[in-house]
Each structure stands twice: as structure tokens, then as C-alpha cells.
Design brief:
The protein is mainly beta. The protein has 2 domains: about 140 residues, no CATH class; about 325 residues, Glycosyl hydrolase domain, family 43 (Tachylectin-2, Chain A, 5 Propeller), CATH 2.115.10. About 5% of the residues lie in helices and about 35% in strands. The protein contains 3 helices and 35 strands. The longest helix is centred in the first third of the chain and has 8 residues.
């Protein structure tokens, strides 16, 4: 059965009431202008697209009601059997099993749900992690016939562009997410797909690698995204850096904000993930012989806790004393740091987290502080950090701030600590072109100039394909240093052409 032909269009649902009459209802569904084919996504991601199995006891008519928020991993998706929906299932059983046509069932761990209509019959597709599951009332023998009449549509009625092609990288391959290149410069963004929370690493193989929070949509599927570039402007998307989930986070998603370091002939990737059996985010670490991965998890989390304090890890080797440090923090917590053991897969026995900087509660964008990035320059340590609501789809509020210290473990002072000036900690904020810039990394080019890589939200393309989650491309802007402090021109993302970094391939 040629399921690779399957695509989705009409996102209209019919609910069958208890009296058998059909009524229309607006439900939480993916945005119709961001919906494209599941089969194409499965082929690109190399994940199974399971064919329907044997019809269950409720086989019959396909009316269905979906509850939940598409794309929100913290809330379950529910499907309702109505007049005997056929359930096609993969990997895990649905609990509890339905007993009658009016009972709601929960699909455990469902990440996203899509509805569509083929030949007058409605069906549902659900993705759990990297597995695509079909819930459909369409008989198998009619699926090919129906698929031939389907195609993605946008809100304007035009075809949706094809998803990004993800292939094995070669030095000669074209960029999967090209920047707008000019004769001597570029225009932002440099990675024009969702590439949130970027961290950068100039590796010994001559490439610069960028690592990013997961993307599990019809556009791209990866638990940890990774891309590489010779010049910091033209980036090539690579396969999933963490293709196998950790054993302690094998049934969840939420792989956030990785940070990488090259040391001792290997590469170490630190990340945050949601634990299988407890609430709250955990810090994890994985190791690889290659900067692009695949990375293999160490087998247990570094640290867990309530809420999302334990996110945004950034490894840093302190040149003053040689300490291997890991920074992290969010959710109202101070920025924290702790020394790693020599194997870098655990914390140094006897070490404890150190509070290196408290949030400035009366300053803008510091309702919470997170995303630490440490730079050592001229004897000082600079802490770049971000704060507030990175991902609110309606009113994101996010920015990059700065503090400095004489020690890698602080205490760090921000400009407002010295002057009392309101807003003086902020070096990058929103513009009329870009919302919520933040969660940055710093990389130095061959001319010694520092560059800020960060994500931001384009108000004209706010959402990821198929879901109501914000889309955060990666931008790049030069850093200027004056009087011992860094700045970004205009304190906003650039809109005009920027001269390219000085790199080997420039």
C-alpha cells in the first residue's frame, strides 16, 4: 500500500452526538496553512509509517472527535469512538480500551494530531515521538485511491512548499536552509527553519557546528538538531544528533537547548529532557566521536528537579585553573554552575551547584533568567543570558542581557548593578521585524571578531508547520566591544546587509 503518497488537506471535523446527529465543532487542530503530508515527513525523517492493522471490535463508521492541543507534549490527545471507529495502533496499547461508542480514549504520549478527509471519510493521524500512527476509518483497499486526490493546501489556497530535504551531508552539498547571500555579506536569518536555542562549536575538523532544541514536525524531525557551516552564514542541516532517546527519557519528548564541547578527543553534548517516571526536566549528557554525532547518552541524567529549572546547559572549560564547568538554570532560579568530573559524564564528587547570578527582578525581561553563555575576554568572564517568555505564541517577550565577573563562578555584575539604570542590562531586544530574540551563543571568526548567534520569531511566519508552536529561525550579528562591555548595533536584530565573518571559506 503506497502510504508515501498520503497527504492531508481539509481540516474539518464532524462530531456525532449521542443522538446520532452530525454537528460541526471547532476543535484544537493544527493550522491549515501549515499542514503538509505525513508520509513525506516520514520519508524525510526515516521513521516508520505504520500501515493499518486488523480492525478492532469497534470497526465501522469513521466519525471522530479529537481533544487536546496539537503539538503540546504536556497535554494528551484524545480520540472518541463514534459509531465504531477503526483504530490502527503501533508500539503501545491505548489505555483504557474503549467499551462503547461514546467513550473517550487517551492516546498516551501523543505529540500531534492531524485530521483530514478523503472521499467523504474522515481520518486522524497521530505522531508519538518519531512514530506515525494511523487512526482511520478508511478501508485499506481505498487508501491509495483516496490519497491520489489529496494535496496540501495553505490558507491562500496555494500549494505548501515541499519540506526541507534532509540527506547525508557532503562538503559539496547545498545548504538545506540557505541564508540570503550577497556579494560580500548576508541578510538574516542564516538558518531559515525552526532552530531554537542555538549553541555553536568551532570543531577541530574545520567546521562550525550549531546544535538546537528538537524539532518534531512535518518539516523536520530530530530530537537534537545539528547543522554545520564553513563560514557561519551558509548552513547545512545534518541528521538527528541524538537519534536514540536516553533510556531514562525513552517515552517522552522535550529535548531542549543542547550545548556541546570538544575535549579529550571526543565530543560531549549536554541537553535537557523530560524524565519518563518523574515530573520536571533533567540535565543529560551524551558522547560521540564526531561533532555531528550520533551521540550516545551516558545512561542516566546528571540532575533532575521540579519544573524546568534544570535546562539550558552550557559546558565551559575555565582556563584559569582548568575546571570543567557546566552552567544552567531557568524558572526563577539563579544561573547555576557546577564542576564536572574528569570523564565529563557526571559532576565532580563532592561538588555542589553554585549560584553565579540572581535575576534582577526589577529589570525588564528578567521575570526569569536562563540560557547562560560564558565568554572569557581580557581577564574577565562575561555571562550572556536571556529572560522572560520565549515562546508565547501571542505575546512573546524575550531578550539578551549581559553581566561580567572576575571569576568563572561569579558573582556576576550587570550594568544595572553598577549604575541603577533601568534596562541597561539588555543588549538585544525586539524590533519591528523580529520578535523575542534570545538564547544566544558566541563564536569568534578568524579575524578575532565575536558574533552572536540567536533565535528570533518572524511575525510574518510565526508558527511551525502544522502546529501552534512558534517558529524560531537562527540569526547572526556581530558584537562590538567598548569600555569593557559588548553591544549589538541598535540593540536589535539586523535588517540590512551584514558583512560576512572572516572564515576559511569566506
Amino acid at each position: 500500500m503506497a502510504l508515501v503518497a498520503l497527504a492531508l488537506i481539509a481540516l474539518a471535523a464532524a462530531q456525532v452526538g449521542r443522538n446520532g446527529t452530525a454537528v460541526r465543532e471547532d476543535l484544537d487542530i493544527p493550522r491549515s496553512d501549515r499542514t503538509a503530508g505525513w508520509a513525506a515527513a516520514a520519508a524525510l525523517a526515516g521513521v516508520p509509517l505504520f500501515e493499518p492493522g486488523e480492525p478492532g471490535q469497534n470497526a465501522g463508521q469513521p466519525q471522530i472527535l479529537v481533544r487536546g492541543v496539537a503539538g503540546d507534549p504536556t497535554r494528551p490527545v484524545q480520540a472518541r469512538y463514534a459509531n465504531g471507529l477503526v483504530l490502527h495502533q503501533a508500539h503501545r496499547d491505548v489505555i483504557p480500551a474503549p467499551e462503547d461508542e461514546n467513550e473517550f480514549i487517551e492516546i498516551r504520549g501523543a505529540d500531534e494530531a492531524w485530521r483530514g478527509e478523503a472521499s467523504g471519510v474522515e481520518y486522524l493521524l497521530v505522531r508519538r515521538g518519531s512514530t506515525l500512527v494511523i487512526l482511520s476509518g478508511l478501508p485499506a483497499e481505498r487508501l491509495d485511491q483516496a490519497a491520489a486526490s489529496l494535496r496540501p493546501i495553505s490558507s491562500s489556497g496555494t500549494d505548501v512548499p515541499s519540506p526541507l530535504v534532509v540527506s547525508e551531508p557532503t562538503p559539496e552539498s547545498s545548504a538545506a536552509a540557505p541564508a540570503r547571500i550577497t556579494e560580500s555579506g548576508y541578510l538574516n536569518p542564516v538558518i531559515d527553519t525552526d532552530f531554537a536555542d542555538p549553541s555553536l562549536l568551532r570543531a577541530s575538523d574545520g567546521w562550525t557546528y550549531a546544535y538546537s532544541t528538537e524539532q518534531l514536525t512535518i518539516e523536520r524531525m530530530a530530537h537534537i538538531q545539528v547543522a554545520r557551516s564553513r563560514d557561519l552564514v551558509r548552513w547545512e542541516l545534518l541528521p538527528d544528533a541524538l537519534p536514540t532517546k536516553p533510556a531514562w527519557a525513552s517515552t517522552t519528548r522535550d529535548f531542549w537547548a543542547p550545548g556541546a564541547i570538544e575535549a579529550d578527543g571526543a565530543f560531549f553534548l549536554y541537553f535537557a529532557a523530560l524524565h519518563d517516571s518523574r515530573d520536571g526536566m533533567c540535565l543529560g549528557v551524551a558522547k560521540s566521536a564526531a561533532p555531528g554525532g550520533p551521540f550516545e547518552d551516558s545512561g542516566q541524567p546528571l540532575q533532575c528537579g521540579d519544573g524546568f529549572v534544570n535546562i539550558d546547559p552550557m559546558p565551559f572549560d575555565d582556563p584559569d585553573g582548568g575546571r570543567r564547568l557546566l552552567y544552567w538554570g531557568s524558572a526563577g532560579s539563579p544561573i547555576l554552575a557546577q564542576e564536572l568530573a574528569p570523564d565529563r559524564l557526571s559532576f565532580l564528587p563532592g561538588s555542589e551547584p553554585v549560584e553565579v547570578m540572581q535575576r534582577h527582578a526589577l529589570q525588564p525581561y528578567e521575570g526569569l533568567v536562563e540560557a547562560p553563555w560564558i565568554v572569557r575576554r581580557e581577564g574577565r568572564y562575561y555571562l550572556f543570558y536571556s529572560g522572560d517568555l520565549c515562546c508565547d505564541p501571542d505575546a512573546p517577550a524575550y531578550a539578551v542581557m549581559i553581566a561580567r565577573s572576575q571569576s568563572a563562578l561569579g558573582p556576576f555584575e550587570a550594568p544595572s548593578d553598577l549604575t541603577g539604570e533601568w534596562g541597561s542590562n539588555v543588549i538585544l531586544r525586539l524590533s519591528d521585524r523580529w520578535d523575542a530574540p534570545g538564547h544566544n551563543a558566541v563564536v569568534t571568526d578568524d579575524a578575532g571578531r565575536d558574533w552572536l548567534a540567536y533565535h528570533a520569531i518572524d511575525p510574518e511566519g510565526r508558527f511551525q508547520p502544522g502546529i501552534d508552536a512558534v517558529r524560531r529561525p537562527m540569526l547572526l550579528d556581530p558584537i562590538a566591544w567598548s569600555d569593557g562591555w559588548p553591544s549589538i548595533e541598535g540593540s536589535q536584530p539586523s535588517q540590512a546587509e551584514v558583512t560576512r565573518p572572516v572564515m576559511p571559506s569566506s
